[in-house]
# Entry
Amino acid sequence: MQFFALMTAFCAMGFQLTLAQCITGLLGGAVLQYSLVIGLFIGSLGMGAATVAWKNYPRQYEILFAIECLLSWITPLIAIIIFKLDAHGLALLGATILSILGGFLSGMELPLLVSDAELSVNASTKIDETNQIQRLVGIDFLGTFAAAVAGPLVLFPLLNLTGTSAFLGILSAVAAGIPLRLILIKNNFSNKIKSLIFSMSLCNLIFSVGLFAERRSIAQWLSDQTFTAMSEED
Amino acid sequence: MNSSYKTTANRSQSLPTLITMPKSAPTWLFFSGATLLAFCSVLYELLLAKIIVDITGDSITWESMTIAFFLAGMGFRAYFGMHDKGIALLDRLIEAERSIILAALCSYPFIVGVELLYRVYFYDLGILREQSLIPPIVFVGLISQIFSLAIGWASGAEIVFFLSAASPEMVKPIKNRAAKVLAVYHLGAFLGTGFFVSLTLRGSDPTRAILGVALLNSGILILGLLWRKQFKSDSQSIQQEKISQLRTLQILSPIAVLFLVLAIATEPLTALKLKNRYFNQYSTSFDQQGLSVNHNPWWLKSTWDLLTQSPSIKRVRTPYQVIDRIDEPGQESLFINGRFQIDRMTADDYHSSLVIPAMALMGKVPERILILGGGDGVLAGTLAHLELKITQVDLVDIDEEVIKMAKEVPWIRSLNGDTLNQWAPLKVHVMDAIAFLREDMPWGYPSKQRQNGPFDLIYIDLTYPYEADSVRFYSLEFFRMIRKNLRSLGAVALGVPFDLQRSSQEVWVKQFLWTLSKAGFSEMTTYGFDASNFAVISNAPQVTSPLSSPFLAYFKNHQNQAKILGRLQKSFAPLQWTRWKLSDIPKSQADVFSLLNPGHGTIEDSFY
# Structure
């Protein structure tokens, strides 16, 4: 679970940094755009956490799996969505919606994990509940730290924006495997349902891997589409 | 109350420290405390990032690094947790708050001190110049992260307190408490970020803002101390009470002293920082004017001289940049984000070298001109001075404050010939250059204010690509837009941060050439002298012999004829200029600069 918290936190922060970098490239004002995206992210993390805090979700693994699946579809498309929306002057609106959506979904993850820790405590008083929760929160912050360092220094220069978002999509798809395993342990599904869920997870992974493999040509296509090279005499 | 709460509560009450525990705090107060403390922590961190970016001059890298170190501090503190309970935990929180306030208050003097030492030893004495393993400004940035880490560590203690103390010992039992604590903590952080954005938009000074946040945080700390006092008062002996009062004094007095010192010293510190930067960094330029301070190993004396002898520097913060200005007669200069832009001595030379050779290489007088950047108006002033028959000149600058200065500050007005107020063909557009070029966009500039149709000549007078914001103006996408807005026989002129002919093997230069080639440009002429380098790019053949350009016919018997000829002779002296065939650039040499490929394109500023 700590590994899951680390991966999801890395993906959540990476998602927002990629988003911020996309709109900074298109609209300028790096400090303002980064502050705006990070602010919206934090706000929507709070909303996501509040959703879990004020309502009980007994099937937390299923929700975690659904969140990761959803993120593994949205994340690889960040750069494409923002650059395509920019052609209609809607990049900032798109970034706002994506930031809130990504933050909201990510905000639900940690409280769901923590509620799992709380349930464990109720089941057995030997486990130090507070310590467990503190560790999960700590790991979550360390995951965001790793993304804040890796994003601008490693991922963006090495993979470009389309590659980075696809890479984060792959991580989300892999992370979805952890709650999936727990779901399968907890529930006695038939082989047919198991195959169906596995195929769905595999599709998520293949989708992100495909976009990652084609990152250069996608970047080229986006650049050509958004910024036409033709002069009027051409 | 469920069974687990009962068990924990009974166990806790058996501990001696918890015998005197008062009744628990109301839930709303508990959550308000978490929100306010998160608000303060995030604000400290963002303001600290702004101070560090001011010094390092690279927004994306150092904003990210500061956030990262802050999160690392929080993460490690939360991971290792706190095993205290009850009042001991509250004591930990009080200690953490004291540390966070002290760290925030100490950060600015410390960072200024490190920068001062770095500049003195690196530039003036040259001691570190040969031996440094990493670029010194990176070293300054990394050293400054001690504070991000410290603030993050203390903020981690806050969140651990709220996660742990939200148990029956200190507050009423709360259902789903961890999730609720996380929710309100994020709410506080969100409010902090929103407040920071409003401070940035208003151009507030981050050092002053830190004082304000420290004041709010101290208020919360005092409330915490009062709460703490109430906790123990029932059973404490008079002796213990005195010790407790002494401890309160120990906690609050360093904060009060430091706060007062900083409130008084912030302005002189900032003045010292700016003078130290500008009068050391650009000492060669200032030496010519007899302005640089004569440094010696007794650097404290030099620093004192710097404070007392050099003129004051006016700083204006805008949502986009930091503008520094020296208005002292004979020493007038303008800096943006710590980097030199114009001064009285070199402005005319630089702008004439950008304006005139481009027209000579085109071979004709342009009708429609676009200036991207150049909000100081000096380039427009140089054009106006030539008395050309120009239909319209569009000037696009994102920063209204720069335009305002160009219209109001006397020495800048005299440099630009008051062009921004008086020159009829000039139309000023306050907007982003890429947004202006993208006329196809629905939110693009209203067509009634912008005549459609391409330009004969585009001058790029934007800042050099030292950081992410300005790298956009060296991207493939930007040059494609430029080409789209250029007539087939038109040209683009820009200043470049490299001597292209002498550093053609540099990776940056290769990427720049390949970017231009891929954007569809075929020809480029480069020339340069002193510290300035220029490039004129076009998709049409340029005049072979610029010294006898057909463009000169326009100035026959004109009062500016001698000046123009002199400028061309200086720019196109033998061996001083190079003609490039961009279509011949090998295509597999390097990546292009692209908006989708951030991290490429920035160059190191050797002056910084």
User: Anything to note?
Assistant: The CA atoms of residues 20 and 40 of chain A lie 11 Å apart.
